[in-house]
Amino acid sequence: MTNVVELSSNETNPTSHQLRCARAIIGMNQEQISIQAGISAKTLISVEARKCTRSSLFAVITAYRRMGVTFEASSDYSIQSVTRHFSEPQVEPVIPSD
Q1: By the 8 A CB rule, do 60 and 39 touch?
Q2: Which residue, 13, 46, 49, 59, could crosslink 37 as a Cys pair with Cβ 3.0–4.6 Å?
Q3: What are phi and psi of 80, to 5 degrees?
Q4: Facing residues of 73 across strands?
């Protein structure tokens, strides 16, 4: 059995909150993200709880990066962000004139 570890957070190692926020930003459920990451939905739950193997965590981070998601935080993690970057410019909505 693979050793289960609780991983510490750093810039390339997002927090539980950041992982769940990324999933919400993408608009996918756990099953869909787990498929993208090549892991089971149960493993994704462990990743989001930060009780997982390093390989599972990195599979999820890699899947999010492929979807344009980046994780950032201040050195003390008092400020955290999750951003989605689009490869194509997003069309601004047309605002009707009066």
Answers
A1: yes
A2: 59
A3: -130, 145
A4: 80
Q: How confident is the model at residue 4 (pLDDT cuts 50, 70, 90)?
A: very low
- Integer Cα distance of 33 and 39 in angstroms: 9
Give the pLDDT confidence of 26-57 residue by residue, as tens digits.
999 999 999 999 999 999 999 999 999 999 99
The residue to which tokens 């892991």 are assigned? 39
Closest to 14 (Cα-Cα) out of 61, 46, 52: 61
Ramachandran area for residue 38 (φ above 0: left; ψ -120 to 50: alpha; else beta): left
Asked whether 41 and 10 are in contact (CB, 8 A), the reply is no
For tokens 């950041």, name the residue: 18
pTM score > 0.85 for this model?
A: no
Question: Which of left, alpha, beta for 77 (phi over 0: left; psi -120 to 50: alpha)?
Answer: left
Q: Tell me the C-alpha distance between 31 and 40, whole Å.
A: 8
